[in-house]
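Now for my pick.
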Amino acid sequence: MGSSISRLFAAFAGVTVLMIAAPAFAHPTVDIVASNWKFTPGTIEMHVGETTVMHITSSGGVHGIQSDDLGIAQTTIKPGEFVDVSVTPKKAGTYVIHCSIPCGGGHGDMTLTVEVKP
C-alpha cells in the first residue's frame, strides 16, 4: 500500500509542476481563413493594449495583410500554411485591412475588419 501512495503522490506532484509551469496569461487567439475574395470571419474584435494573436491560413490562393495603423507588417498567407501575427492595438476604433496581394477579380472587396474596443 505504501508504494501505491508514493506513486499517487508522484503523479500528483508531476501534475502540479505542469500546472505551475503553464503561462498564467495566454494571449487571446483568433483563427482566420483567407480564401478567394474574403476573410473568415470578416470581422474580429480586439482590445486596446491587449495582445491578440491572429492565426491565419489560406484555403485557396496566396493572400496578404498589412496595416500601419495596427502595426502589422506585410504578411503573406499561403494555402496549407499557418502564420501567427501578434497585434497590440494602441487606439480604439474600426480598422479595415485590405488583402495586400492581388488575388483576382474580387481582390478589391477582400477586407478584414478589426474592431478595437477600449
